[in-house]
Amino acid sequence: MEKEKLLTVGQVAEIMNLPKSKIRYWDDMNLLTSSRNRQNGYRLFDMEDILTISDIDFYRRLDIPINKMTNLYRKSPEELWTILDETETRVAAELAELEKKQQGIKHRKNQLLSLIELKEKEFLDEPLDVERIIPIDLKDPNELQTYIDNPSSLVVYIKEGHEKEIMYGFAVTAKEFVEEVTIWQQSDQPKDSYKQFLFTIKSDNPLENNFQVIKEKLEKQGYQTGTMIGRYIMTAEDQDGFYRDYYKAWVEVNK
Q1: What is the signed CA dihedral for 16, 18, 23, 24, rounded to 10 degrees?
Q2: d(CA 68, CA 127)
Q3: 25-62: per-residue pLDDT in tens?
Q4: Quick one: which of 26, 68, 228, 230 has the fewest CB in 10 Å?
């Protein structure tokens, strides 16, 4: 005997907050057991169907394939547990990736805030946050991954008295890449003072930069300047149509 049907697909869609097309699709895939109104051919659903739709919606929101939803109520508890366990593992990996993306977004936002602040305030008294600099090795996948994960690990280094020699490297901790040559490393008990500023380089000509201007301004304030280190922030087109690289930079100072 045919069970009594109560609701149309539109009514079920409104109750479940689902598109009618999705419910029709599940029905067409034989995941549901709707019947038809003999007068107009409309699909009709009862409470049992609504419970089934709720379960299917739960599993589909977890991206469990339709083919695993066939004969849902004929699956054993063990089969359902396995499906959910596999899904939980996948979701955990997706959450970890989303967390990584979120941290990346936060880091980029902080870098941009630094740029904005340094544009407004020419010099800041901020401690240097670079421990060690190593050469760039494009053949080392670990170093490249460090840059991909954190572009601000790319640094520029100008040794005192060598303003025409700009060196590029990666900022790492003292315990990372210990087998690599060290370009520069902060002492265990740093005594140097630093002024933070916005260092800009013309992308296709690194020697065209603002370091000399920065030095002259600091010297007018009575400072002697030394080594400069800058962390990459971003590249952008300037008002003249040239690309420039922006760095959050520190220069050693003393009076």
Answers
A1: 130
A2: 57
A3: 998 888 887 777 767 767 888 888 889 899 999 999 99
A4: 68
